[in-house]
Amino acid sequence: MSPPSRERLRPLLPYAAMLAAAAFFYWAATRIQADTGGRIGPAAWPKAIIAMLALLCVYEIVKRLVAPSGPSATGIVSTSGPQGAPAGAEEEERTYPLKLAGGIGMVAAYVLAAPWLGFFVSTALFLAIFPRIGGVRRPALLAFLGLAGSLALIVVFMRVAYISLPLGEGPFRALSIGLLRVLGVT
């Protein structure tokens, strides 16, 4: 069996780079020391996420080496035009600059609003409005996504990962504290 060609190895470069970065960051996470009194330490979640990233990279590398043909994403390592067309082929590609700007604006607004509105309210609004900017037109679905997603994230962050979240100011703080009491988070 002959070694893989340069063209076959080229799409593996981003995954190899992310795998190397994951190895470095995992090593860095092992250096985190904290006395947690028997609870999950601050290194557990970064290490878990980094390990998932590394596993995903290994999967993608093996998949591309074993079965290189088939659908794949193109990007910075692509040598062809859209959807496998030769470079320079004229095919109109749709772009949505206003949706992109709206999404970026929502992320910035979320970061600025979270300390004032609190995690629950700002996350519920973000999770409801962001898909709307992307094109979802069903108000009931958007409301459900916002409320259910925000509640799920509060439970995961505060009851599972023991991460403190912003409570907000004024009436938003009172709402957050009442919600945490209902959820049994102290």
List the helices and strands and how they pair.
Layout: H1 6-9, H2 13-30, H3 44-66, H4 97-117, H5 119-134, H6 139-160, H7 171-183
Helix pairs in contact: 2-3, 4-5, 5-6
What would you say this structure looks like, in words?
The protein is an all-alpha fold. The protein folds into 2 domains: 6-84; 97-183, no CATH class. The protein has 7 helices and no strands. It has helices at residues 6-9, 13-30, 44-66, 97-117, 119-134, 139-160, 171-183. It is flat.
Features:
about 190 residues; mainly alpha
Strand content: under 5%
Number of helices: 7
Q: What overall form do the CA principal axes indicate?
A: flat
Distance between the termini: 61 Å
In short:
The protein is mainly α and 186 residues long. Helices cover 63% and strands 0% of the residues. It starts with 5 loop residues before the first helix and ends with a helix.
